[in-house]
UniProtKB/TrEMBL annotation:
<feature type="region of interest" description="Disordered">
    <location>
        <begin position="1"/>
        <end position="21"/>
    </location>
</feature>
<keyword id="KW-0472">Membrane</keyword>
<feature type="transmembrane region" description="Helical">
    <location>
        <begin position="60"/>
        <end position="83"/>
    </location>
</feature>
<feature type="transmembrane region" description="Helical">
    <location>
        <begin position="104"/>
        <end position="125"/>
    </location>
</feature>
<feature type="domain" description="CAAX prenyl protease 2/Lysostaphin resistance protein A-like">
    <location>
        <begin position="147"/>
        <end position="236"/>
    </location>
</feature>
<dbReference type="Pfam" id="PF02517">
    <property type="entry name" value="Rce1-like"/>
</dbReference>
<keyword id="KW-0812">Transmembrane</keyword>
<feature type="transmembrane region" description="Helical">
    <location>
        <begin position="145"/>
        <end position="167"/>
    </location>
</feature>
<feature type="transmembrane region" description="Helical">
    <location>
        <begin position="33"/>
        <end position="54"/>
    </location>
</feature>
<keyword id="KW-1133">Transmembrane helix</keyword>
<feature type="transmembrane region" description="Helical">
    <location>
        <begin position="232"/>
        <end position="249"/>
    </location>
</feature>
<dbReference type="InterPro" id="IPR003675">
    <property type="entry name" value="Rce1/LyrA-like_dom"/>
</dbReference>
<protein>
    <submittedName>
        <fullName>Type II CAAX endopeptidase family protein</fullName>
    </submittedName>
</protein>
<feature type="transmembrane region" description="Helical">
    <location>
        <begin position="179"/>
        <end position="198"/>
    </location>
</feature>
<feature type="transmembrane region" description="Helical">
    <location>
        <begin position="204"/>
        <end position="220"/>
    </location>
</feature>
């Protein structure tokens, strides 16, 4: 008798128990454009209420008006992913990857140069009245060093995270769920980012600022790169706001 082949005598091990269990499928998020509109409404309504309550704001109120609306909107975006999705890490790709960081730094650096050029042109076009909303709020207000640094860190590091959660997170994910092409998602999110700041005189400038940030999101497919690019782009404006808040530079 011939000896049976190993394949005839050895059977595959029985796949049972945790070590052989198939990973649970990640469910698709269940939010749409309504989630983005809700988070954006939180931002707008918070800004309006604070402006009405603090008609003549002091230093602490100014900081609250600059920080609270953006942070609340960002928290709403995170909450929506937890309730209607898998959390920001999976739904937005908000995780630490060296490649995303380097891509964000590279694209953000290019964006910073284009922003500086565009801002210079915008200021020449607008003349002496050229000003951002943040600079206008701080005009004539001198903040204590601790609060000035807090505003600086918010504009440089925190606000970009919150804004990316809204525009390249909720909005981007909602349009992807509607099976829009990546190019259309990029174009619409870039346009709404510029319009959503509610600064008509700066809309075209914000559009230029938003292009490299959106590219970082589209190239990597994850939010980390666009957050980094946004933070790089916001650094010099944040320094300017710090100097204005300290009274070392006119608004």
């Amino acid at each position: 008798m011939s000896t049976p082949h190993a394949s005839e005598t050895e059977s595959e091990p029985v796949r049972s128990g945790p070590s052989w269990a198939a990973p649970a499928p990640v469910r698709t998020h269940r939010w749409g454009l309504g989630a983005f509109l809700f988070a954006e409404a939180v931002f707008v309504l918070t800004s309006v209420v604070l402006a009405a309550v603090f008609s003549a704001p002091g230093t602490a109120a100014v900081v609250l008006m600059l920080v609270l609306p953006t942070v609340l909107a960002g928290l709403v975006a995170v909450g929506i992913t937890l309730v209607r999705g898998n959390g920001p890490r999976l739904d937005f790709g908000l995780q630490w990857r060296r490649s995303d960081v380097t891509t964000g730094l590279a694209i953000g650096g290019i964006g910073l140069v284009t922003t500086m050029v565009a801002t210079t042109l915008w200021m020449r076009w607008e003349g002496a009245g050229a000003n951002s909303t943040v600079s206008s709020v701080l005009d004539g207000v001198r903040l204590p060093p601790a609060l000035a640094v807090l505003v600086f860190l918010h504009i440089w590091l925190v606000a970009p995270v919150c804004e990316e959660l809204l525009y390249r997170g909720l909005l981007w994910g909602a349009m992807e769920r509607m099976r829009w092409s990546q190019l259309n998602v990029f174009v619409l999110s870039t346009a709404l980012f510029a319009i959503g700041h509610l600064e008509p005189s700066r809309t075209w400038l914000l559009l230029i600022i938003a292009i490299p940030i959106g590219l970082a999101r589209m190239v990597t497919g994850r939010l980390t790169a666009s957050v980094i690019a946004h933070q790089v782009n916001n650094f010099l404006p944040a320094v300017g706001v710090l100097l204005i808040a300290m009274g070392w530079m006119p608004a």
